[in-house]
Design brief:
55% of the residues lie in helices and 20% in strands. By secondary structure, it is of the alpha+beta class. The structure holds ligand 0O2. This is GTP pyrophosphokinase YwaC.
Length: 220
């Protein structure tokens, strides 16, 4: 490797490092919220959390697609999903609870929000996407770093994972009949989410009534 290439590689690694640190910061925040919420409310709204830093290859593909100059400053300004966190919740209402808890933190700035739950994509894709900015304190400077947070239910995640696999299996040219079936499957997943949400509400009501007067249940 030539010296010039070595320097480029070092620059790239340092550039990507800030996204890794941003994910670490966000993961700490999400874990604290999860533990404290569970303690107070006696249930855990988060099923699981995954994260990734976009690979240099995917970043460069996006640079090309968006016709950007491949410089760190330009990439940082225009590509906001280099650091990505996916939070999978039990119920649809939990998604907005998590969103609000993140939004209210002093060091988090909400840059944009796309609600594909209220307005699903034509193929049926549902998820809440937030672009957040958080400060990362490095050895010689503070960087505000973007993190894309996708929040969805287990059913939305199940559908999106399979759809993603099918999409790439067919090299992004999915046969029409499969697309129609996938959209129908997204609707089925949505109905399941609605049913689960209803059950969740009913259970909360029963629990609240019982907590008001536990003896009433025993007819004492
Ligand atoms: P990966 O590998 O998940 O990162 P952008 O290109 O990000 O500037 P865009 O396309 O408007 O702008 O972003 P949007 O709509 O917020 O969606 C970006 C991400 O959402 C995707 O990332 C997917 O993770 C997810 N997503 C969006 N639409 C779909 C869909 O129809 N099906 C599935 N399975 N996932 C979807 P990437 O970059 O495509 O890939």
């Amino acid at each position: 490797m030539t010296d010039a290439l070595k320097i480029k590689k070092q620059e790239l690694m340092r550039f990507l490092m800030q996204y890794k640190f941003a994910i670490n910061e966000m993961m700490t925040k999400v874990n604290i919220l999860k533990q404290e919420f569970t303690y107070i409310n006696d249930y855990n709204p988060i099923e699981h959390v995954t994260h990734r830093v976009k690979s240099p290859k995917s970043i460069l593909m996006k640079v090309e697609k968006k016709d950007l100059k491949p410089s760190p400053a330009v990439i940082k300004e225009h590509i906001h999903d280099i650091a990505g966190i996916r939070i999978t919740c039990s119920f649809e209402s939990d998604i907005y609870i998590i969103r609000d808890m993140l939004k209210q933190q002093d060091d988090i700035t909400l840059l944009s929000e796309k609600d594909y739950i209220q307005s699903p994509k034509p193929n049926g894709y549902r998820s809440l996407h937030l672009i957040l900015s958080i400060p990362i304190f490095m050895s010689d400077r503070t960087e505000n770093v973007c993190v894309e947070v996708q929040i969805r239910t287990i059913a939305m995640d199940f559908w999106a994972s399979l759809e993603h696999k099918i999409y790439y299996k067919f090299n992004k040219q999915v046969p029409k009949h499969l697309n129609i079936e996938l959209t129908e499957a997204a609707e089925a997943a949505h109905k399941l989410d609605q049913k689960m949400e209803k059950l969740h509400r009913e259970m909360a009501e029963i629990k609240a009534e019982y907590e008001e007067d536990p003896l009433e249940e025993l007819n004492l």
